[in-house]
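TASK: fixed-backbone design
INPUT:
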Protein backbone atom coordinates (compact mmCIF):
# COMPACT_ATOMS: atom_id res chain seq x y z
CA UNK A 1 0.00 0.00 0.00
CA UNK A 2 1.25 3.51 -0.84
CA UNK A 3 2.40 5.62 2.12
CA UNK A 4 0.96 9.10 1.71
CA UNK A 5 3.03 12.27 1.53
CA UNK A 6 3.17 14.15 4.84
CA UNK A 7 0.15 16.42 5.35
CA UNK A 8 -1.98 14.78 2.65
CA UNK A 9 -4.89 12.38 2.43
CA UNK A 10 -4.43 9.17 0.44
CA UNK A 11 -7.27 8.63 -2.04
CA UNK A 12 -8.11 6.08 -4.73
CA UNK A 13 -10.00 8.51 -7.00
CA UNK A 14 -10.32 12.27 -7.34
CA UNK A 15 -13.35 12.67 -9.62
CA UNK A 16 -15.64 13.17 -6.61
CA UNK A 17 -13.25 15.44 -4.70
CA UNK A 18 -14.23 19.06 -4.12
CA UNK A 19 -12.31 22.16 -2.94
CA UNK A 20 -8.97 20.51 -3.64
CA UNK A 21 -5.82 22.64 -3.61
CA UNK A 22 -3.28 20.11 -4.88
CA UNK A 23 -2.94 16.44 -5.75
CA UNK A 24 0.24 14.38 -5.56
CA UNK A 25 0.86 11.73 -8.22
CA UNK A 26 3.73 9.26 -8.25
CA UNK A 27 5.17 8.24 -11.62
CA UNK A 28 7.50 5.26 -11.09
CA UNK A 29 8.76 5.29 -14.66
CA UNK A 30 12.32 4.99 -15.90
CA UNK A 31 13.29 4.95 -19.58
CA UNK A 32 16.50 3.01 -19.04
CA UNK A 33 19.77 4.18 -20.58
CA UNK A 34 22.44 1.53 -20.09
CA UNK A 35 25.23 3.85 -18.93
CA UNK A 36 23.08 5.60 -16.27
CA UNK A 37 22.49 3.89 -12.94
CA UNK A 38 18.89 2.78 -12.62
CA UNK A 39 16.83 3.69 -9.58
CA UNK A 40 14.58 6.70 -10.22
CA UNK A 41 11.65 4.30 -10.51
CA UNK A 42 11.95 3.97 -6.71
CA UNK A 43 11.78 7.71 -6.07
CA UNK A 44 8.04 8.28 -5.50
CA UNK A 45 8.03 5.80 -2.61
CA UNK A 46 11.28 7.17 -1.21
CA UNK A 47 10.16 10.82 -1.37
CA UNK A 48 6.88 10.01 0.37
CA UNK A 49 8.65 8.02 3.08
CA UNK A 50 11.22 10.80 3.55
CA UNK A 51 8.43 13.37 3.89
CA UNK A 52 7.19 11.48 6.95
CA UNK A 53 10.47 12.34 8.68
CA UNK A 54 9.12 15.90 8.93
CA UNK A 55 6.11 17.56 10.52
CA UNK A 56 5.59 19.74 7.45
CA UNK A 57 5.45 22.87 9.63
CA UNK A 58 8.11 25.56 9.25
CA UNK A 59 8.66 28.94 10.92
CA UNK A 60 5.82 30.52 8.96
CA UNK A 61 2.24 30.04 10.08
CA UNK A 62 1.29 28.87 6.58
CA UNK A 63 2.20 25.31 5.68
CA UNK A 64 0.95 22.29 3.78
CA UNK A 65 -1.47 21.70 6.67
CA UNK A 66 -3.54 24.76 5.71
CA UNK A 67 -4.36 23.24 2.32
CA UNK A 68 -6.51 20.38 1.10
CA UNK A 69 -3.87 18.16 -0.49
CA UNK A 70 -4.67 14.67 -1.73
CA UNK A 71 -2.24 11.89 -2.55
CA UNK A 72 -3.57 9.95 -5.53
CA UNK A 73 -0.89 7.26 -5.25
CA UNK A 74 1.12 6.09 -8.25
CA UNK A 75 0.25 5.44 -11.85
CA UNK A 76 0.86 1.84 -12.89
CA UNK A 77 4.42 0.56 -13.06
CA UNK A 78 6.04 -1.36 -15.95
CA UNK A 79 4.23 0.69 -18.60
CA UNK A 80 5.42 1.46 -22.09
CA UNK A 81 6.36 5.08 -22.74
CA UNK A 82 3.07 5.69 -24.58
CA UNK A 83 1.03 4.05 -21.80
CA UNK A 84 2.79 6.16 -19.17
CA UNK A 85 2.01 9.36 -21.09
CA UNK A 86 -1.65 8.41 -21.40
CA UNK A 87 -2.11 7.63 -17.71
CA UNK A 88 -0.17 10.67 -16.54
CA UNK A 89 -1.76 13.15 -18.95
CA UNK A 90 -5.24 11.97 -17.97
CA UNK A 91 -4.54 12.48 -14.29
CA UNK A 92 -2.92 15.87 -14.87
CA UNK A 93 -5.90 17.03 -16.93
CA UNK A 94 -8.37 15.90 -14.25
CA UNK A 95 -6.46 17.69 -11.50
CA UNK A 96 -6.03 20.93 -13.45
CA UNK A 97 -9.71 20.96 -14.41
CA UNK A 98 -10.49 20.90 -10.69
CA UNK A 99 -8.37 24.06 -10.35
CA UNK A 100 -5.87 22.12 -8.26
CA UNK A 101 -2.10 21.87 -8.64
CA UNK A 102 -0.65 18.56 -9.85
CA UNK A 103 2.49 17.70 -7.88
CA UNK A 104 4.31 14.94 -9.71
CA UNK A 105 6.94 12.67 -8.22
CA UNK A 106 9.09 11.03 -10.90
CA UNK A 107 10.54 8.93 -12.21
CA UNK A 108 13.05 10.16 -14.77
CA UNK A 109 12.67 13.39 -16.71
CA UNK A 110 11.16 11.72 -19.78
CA UNK A 111 7.80 11.77 -17.95
CA UNK A 112 7.55 15.51 -18.64
CA UNK A 113 6.02 14.86 -22.06
CA UNK A 114 3.03 13.23 -20.36
CA UNK A 115 2.72 16.14 -17.94
CA UNK A 116 2.75 18.71 -20.73
CA UNK A 117 0.19 16.75 -22.74
CA UNK A 118 -2.06 16.84 -19.67
CA UNK A 119 -1.98 20.64 -19.77
CA UNK A 120 -2.73 20.59 -23.51
CA UNK A 121 -5.98 18.63 -23.03
CA UNK A 122 -7.06 20.54 -19.90
CA UNK A 123 -9.09 23.73 -19.67
CA UNK A 124 -6.11 25.80 -18.49
CA UNK A 125 -3.61 27.45 -20.81
CA UNK A 126 0.06 26.77 -20.12
CA UNK A 127 1.96 30.07 -20.34
CA UNK A 128 5.51 28.95 -19.65
CA UNK A 129 7.73 26.09 -18.56
CA UNK A 130 10.46 26.71 -15.99
CA UNK A 131 13.02 23.95 -16.56
CA UNK A 132 15.21 23.73 -13.44
CA UNK A 133 17.91 21.29 -14.43
CA UNK A 134 21.65 20.79 -14.86
CA UNK A 135 20.91 19.79 -18.46
CA UNK A 136 18.95 21.23 -21.38
CA UNK A 137 17.27 17.98 -22.51
CA UNK A 138 17.09 19.25 -26.10
CA UNK A 139 18.92 16.43 -27.89
CA UNK A 140 17.09 15.09 -30.92
CA UNK A 141 18.30 11.57 -30.15
CA UNK A 142 20.13 10.26 -27.11
CA UNK A 143 21.50 7.67 -27.15
CA UNK A 144 21.58 7.38 -30.91
CA UNK A 145 18.26 6.10 -32.21
CA UNK A 146 16.35 6.99 -29.01
CA UNK A 147 14.06 10.00 -29.41
CA UNK A 148 12.22 9.46 -26.11
CA UNK A 149 14.72 9.68 -23.27
CA UNK A 150 15.43 12.04 -20.39
CA UNK A 151 17.88 13.88 -22.67
CA UNK A 152 15.39 14.48 -25.51
CA UNK A 153 12.14 15.19 -23.69
CA UNK A 154 12.06 18.97 -23.94
CA UNK A 155 12.87 18.79 -27.66
CA UNK A 156 9.86 16.50 -28.10
CA UNK A 157 7.65 18.89 -26.11
CA UNK A 158 8.68 21.77 -28.39
CA UNK A 159 8.49 19.68 -31.58
CA UNK A 160 4.93 18.71 -30.73
CA UNK A 161 4.09 22.42 -30.29
CA UNK A 162 3.06 21.95 -26.67
CA UNK A 163 5.07 25.08 -25.79
CA UNK A 164 6.86 27.76 -27.78
CA UNK A 165 10.63 27.76 -27.23
CA UNK A 166 10.56 31.44 -26.21
CA UNK A 167 8.28 30.47 -23.30
CA UNK A 168 10.77 28.03 -21.81
CA UNK A 169 13.04 29.34 -19.06
CA UNK A 170 16.10 27.37 -17.97
CA UNK A 171 17.39 27.72 -14.43
CA UNK A 172 20.63 26.11 -13.30
CA UNK A 173 22.21 24.44 -16.35
CA UNK A 174 25.91 23.75 -15.85
CA UNK A 175 28.66 21.20 -16.30
CA UNK A 176 30.15 19.60 -19.40
CA UNK A 177 27.49 17.11 -20.40
CA UNK A 178 25.58 19.12 -23.02
CA UNK A 179 25.29 18.52 -26.75
CA UNK A 180 26.40 21.15 -29.24
CA UNK A 181 23.06 20.80 -31.03
CA UNK A 182 21.34 21.80 -27.78
CA UNK A 183 23.50 24.90 -27.37
CA UNK A 184 22.79 25.88 -30.98
CA UNK A 185 19.03 25.28 -30.56
CA UNK A 186 18.93 27.56 -27.53
CA UNK A 187 20.83 30.27 -29.40
CA UNK A 188 18.75 30.03 -32.58
CA UNK A 189 15.49 30.20 -30.65
CA UNK A 190 16.64 32.94 -28.26
CA UNK A 191 15.74 30.78 -25.27
CA UNK A 192 16.39 32.26 -21.83
CA UNK A 193 18.96 30.77 -19.47
CA UNK A 194 19.97 31.53 -15.90
CA UNK A 195 23.06 29.35 -15.48
CA UNK A 196 24.06 27.81 -12.17
CA UNK A 197 26.84 30.37 -11.78
CA UNK A 198 24.36 33.20 -12.43
CA UNK A 199 21.99 31.79 -9.81
CA UNK A 200 24.67 32.73 -7.26
CA UNK A 201 24.29 36.39 -8.25
CA UNK A 202 21.32 37.78 -6.30
CA UNK A 203 20.64 40.55 -8.80
CA UNK A 204 20.72 38.26 -11.86
CA UNK A 205 18.59 35.64 -10.13
CA UNK A 206 15.98 38.12 -8.96
CA UNK A 207 15.78 39.87 -12.34
CA UNK A 208 15.34 36.54 -14.15
CA UNK A 209 12.53 35.46 -11.83
CA UNK A 210 10.85 38.86 -12.06
CA UNK A 211 10.87 38.57 -15.86
CA UNK A 212 9.07 35.22 -15.64
CA UNK A 213 6.52 36.49 -13.14
CA UNK A 214 5.95 39.69 -15.08
CA UNK A 215 5.15 37.90 -18.36
CA UNK A 216 3.33 34.75 -17.30
CA UNK A 217 0.44 33.63 -15.09
CA UNK A 218 0.43 29.84 -15.33
CA UNK A 219 3.78 28.14 -14.77
CA UNK A 220 4.72 24.50 -15.08
CA UNK A 221 7.91 24.01 -13.05
CA UNK A 222 9.83 20.88 -13.97
CA UNK A 223 12.57 20.28 -11.43
CA UNK A 224 15.34 17.82 -12.12
CA UNK A 225 17.03 17.41 -8.75
CA UNK A 226 20.45 17.08 -10.44
CA UNK A 227 20.42 20.89 -10.75
CA UNK A 228 21.78 20.77 -7.22
CA UNK A 229 25.46 20.32 -6.62
CA UNK A 230 26.14 16.63 -5.81
CA UNK A 231 27.28 17.77 -2.36
CA UNK A 232 23.60 18.61 -1.68
CA UNK A 233 21.97 15.88 -3.78
CA UNK A 234 24.16 12.77 -4.19
CA UNK A 235 21.23 10.55 -5.15
CA UNK A 236 20.98 11.29 -8.87
CA UNK A 237 21.88 9.29 -11.97
CA UNK A 238 23.62 12.13 -13.84
CA UNK A 239 25.48 14.25 -11.26
CA UNK A 240 27.06 17.52 -12.42
CA UNK A 241 29.57 19.22 -10.07
CA UNK A 242 29.13 22.97 -9.76
CA UNK A 243 25.38 23.03 -9.24
CA UNK A 244 23.20 25.33 -7.19
CA UNK A 245 22.64 25.02 -3.46
CA UNK A 246 19.59 23.71 -1.64
CA UNK A 247 18.94 27.15 -0.18
CA UNK A 248 18.99 28.73 -3.64
CA UNK A 249 16.54 26.11 -4.92
CA UNK A 250 14.19 26.79 -2.00
CA UNK A 251 14.35 30.54 -2.67
CA UNK A 252 13.55 30.05 -6.36
CA UNK A 253 10.61 27.79 -5.50
CA UNK A 254 9.27 30.27 -2.97
CA UNK A 255 9.45 33.21 -5.36
CA UNK A 256 7.70 31.35 -8.20
CA UNK A 257 5.12 29.67 -5.94
CA UNK A 258 2.06 31.87 -6.43
CA UNK A 259 2.08 31.30 -10.20
CA UNK A 260 2.97 27.60 -10.18
CA UNK A 261 0.14 25.55 -11.68
CA UNK A 262 2.11 22.29 -11.79
CA UNK A 263 5.26 21.14 -9.99
CA UNK A 264 7.22 18.10 -11.06
CA UNK A 265 10.23 16.67 -9.20
CA UNK A 266 12.26 14.11 -11.13
CA UNK A 267 15.52 12.16 -11.23
CA UNK A 268 15.88 11.33 -7.54
CA UNK A 269 17.72 8.00 -7.44
CA UNK A 270 17.42 6.34 -4.00
CA UNK A 271 19.90 3.64 -5.08
CA UNK A 272 22.66 6.27 -5.10
CA UNK A 273 21.49 8.40 -2.19
CA UNK A 274 23.24 8.99 1.14
CA UNK A 275 21.01 8.93 4.23
CA UNK A 276 18.02 9.74 1.97
CA UNK A 277 19.19 13.36 1.79
CA UNK A 278 18.13 13.75 -1.86
CA UNK A 279 14.66 12.34 -1.21
CA UNK A 280 14.35 14.56 1.86
CA UNK A 281 15.35 17.59 -0.18
CA UNK A 282 12.72 16.75 -2.80
CA UNK A 283 10.10 16.52 -0.06
CA UNK A 284 11.16 19.89 1.31
CA UNK A 285 10.78 21.56 -2.09
CA UNK A 286 7.11 20.57 -1.89
CA UNK A 287 6.82 21.90 1.66
CA UNK A 288 8.36 25.18 0.47
CA UNK A 289 5.76 25.48 -2.28
CA UNK A 290 2.93 25.38 0.24
CA UNK A 291 4.71 27.79 2.57
CA UNK A 292 4.50 30.42 -0.17
CA UNK A 293 1.29 29.70 -2.13
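OUTPUT:
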Amino acid sequence: MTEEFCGTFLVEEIESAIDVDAVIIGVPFENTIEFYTEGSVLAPKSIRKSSQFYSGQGLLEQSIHQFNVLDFGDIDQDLTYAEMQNQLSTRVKTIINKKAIPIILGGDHSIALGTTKGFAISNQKLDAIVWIDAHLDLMNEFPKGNKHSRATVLKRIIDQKLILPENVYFIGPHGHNLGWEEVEFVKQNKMKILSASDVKDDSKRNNFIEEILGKHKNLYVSLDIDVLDPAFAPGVSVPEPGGISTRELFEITTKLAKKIRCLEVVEVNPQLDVNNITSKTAANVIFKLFDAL
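COMMENT: The two ends are 30 Å apart (CA to CA).
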